[in-house]
Amino acid sequence: MKGWLIAGLAALGTILVGMVKADLEDEKVCRWLARKLAYRTAQRLPADERDRWREELIRDLLDLEGRVAPLLWAFSVYLQAGRWGRMRGMPSRWEVLVARTRAAWQRLRSLPQARARALSKQWHPSRNPETAQQIMAAAINTKQAVGTATLEVGLTATAPGVGSTATYRPTMDVSHDGAPELTHTSFVVWLRQQRQDFEAHIDRRFEEYRRARDRELGP
Amino acid sequence: MGDPPRLTMNVLRILRALLEDPAIPRHGLEIGLGAGLRGGSLYPVLSKLEDAKLVSSTWEDVDPSEVGRPRRRLYRLNPDGVVYARQALAEAQQQLSPTDPHTPAWGRTPGFPAKGGAPA
Description:
Structural class of chain B: mainly alpha
Distance between the termini of chain B: 37 Å
Number of helices of chain B: 5
Structural class of chain A: mainly alpha
Distance between the termini of chain A: 131 Å
Shape of chain B: elongated
Order of helices and strands of chain A: HHHHHHHHH
Number of helices of chain A: 9
Number of strands of chain B: 3
Oligomer: heterodimer
CATH topology of the domain at 9-61 and 70-95 in chain B: Arc Repressor Mutant, subunit A
């Protein structure tokens, strides 16, 4: 069994080495690989310098002739990329690994709290379907109350005594998010004042028009 | 001028390559081949020298579509850099040239006589 395993691994290794060798004999593959190494090198540098060095490294690779020279040049740069990056203020791979592990551990530790927060939101009364329906009904009542109040003030202003507050639903006392916090009394007073001001304005304009017409027509 | 980099053999080689004709800007590969350095040793040193304001670099002022090739990054020693490079190379030359031609400067032990001469 052990002999078969060794033979199999050897055969697999031979095939892989042959494939890699065939690829490396192709100049296009070598240049592609060199370009990839240049990109990976630039990734190890600070973000504000990456574009400049990427362009410069790839530009210099173009000047190198042959199949192996660009690859060796790019590989030598890539080997020093970590040291170069640290020199430019980038963290080492080890530091990145430690920081990521620490962040993952913190996230893992905060999972119970996050789950508790999610459950708390889920169990909040506003998430209850019955409560949501009640909130919707209250909002509809508010709209109706505004409409009713407008109608009543109009009736009161045009024909005093006709308007009745018996149908008014005092839901405006309930303060909702974004709704004006007016009591129903002050709201009705405000509406009435607006209506009176508007009618007084119309009366003034009508009086001015009548006088101008009289002046034109003469006595 | 910023903090000059530590004088290593690679730094000295690059300074020497740049000092051959300080007026002519050279691109990275040319400097590397002139200094006999691989890319991995070249670019970090160039960026260090640039940080120290000894070397300035600019993109080649050509239109790639006209010349039919991408632009190059060109390096040139600053006036301060020329003075610094000459001084550094002279000091290095002095340190590396042994009084005894058979023993390098770093191989001499204080108190021990050099070959056929007075104590070093």
